[in-house]
Every structure is written in structure tokens, then in C-alpha cells.
Amino acid sequence: MKFLGNILWLLLGGIITAIEYLVASIGLMITIIGIPFGLQTLKLAILALWPFGSTVTDGGNAGGCLSVIMNIIWILIGGIWISLTHLIFGLFLCITIIGIPFGMQHFKMAALALAPFGKNISQ
Fold first, then answer.
1. How many whole angstroms separate alpha carbon 37 and alpha carbon 104?
2. CA-based angle 74:94:50, to the nearest 5?
3. d(CA 73, CA 71)
């Protein structure tokens, strides 16, 4: 069932979302300062490709000082808008019964997009 959900996800916009995150990641990695932020958008691209069956967990350094500072910077430079976008898509998809599984995946992506530093994605 997860495989079918992921295929439908890709066909209905997941591949476009992943490409957008990949392009943003490449753009951020052009500068040395943007590399850590580019790595976080790669996490979002990976999750956008195959969200069903993937889990987002806290890494060993999730509560560390550097992760907290980087998450605050991330939120201020655009993470809040990425998270709100996924939250709104999730709410719209959850209006119908058929869209609920896809809405739940957007909620998972919204949580990661809000504070990606110190988080890991596992299959």
C-alpha cells in the first residue's frame, strides 16, 4: 500500500516538489554559507520523493546549541513559509477522505520544513 501511495504521490506533484527542493538546494550550495541550508533542502527533496513509509526522527544532536541556532535562522529566512505551505496543502487534502493520506504526508513535511536541523529521515 505504501508503494502505491508513493507512486500516486509522485504522479500528482511529488516529483515537481522534489525538483523544486533540489533546485533550491543547488542554489543554496553555491555559497559556502548556504551549504548547511542546502543540505536541509536535500532532506526535504528526499522526503518529497518517497514520503509514505518514511519517518522523521530526531538525531543525536537535535537539542544541541548549533541545531537550535541554525533552526532559528532557517525559520527566519523562509522555513516558516515552506512549513505553512505544506500545512495548507495538508489541510486542503484532508477535506476529503481520499486525500487524508496525502494530507498526512504534507503534515510530516511541514514539521520537517519548520526545523530541519538535527532531524533524520529513515525508510
1. 25
2. 55
3. 5
pTM, two decimal places: 0.86
What is the per-residue pLDDT across 51-87, written as a single tens digit (0 to 9) for each? 998 888 887 766 678 888 999 999 998 889 999 999 9
**Start-to-end Cα distance in the chain:** 15
Provide the 3-class DSSP secondary structure of residue 120. strand
Residue of 75, 77, 65 lying closest to 112 (CA atoms)? 75
* C-alpha torsion angle, residues 31, 35, 36, 39 (rounded to 10): 140
5: Cβ contacts below 8 Å, ≥ 6 apart: 52, 101, 102
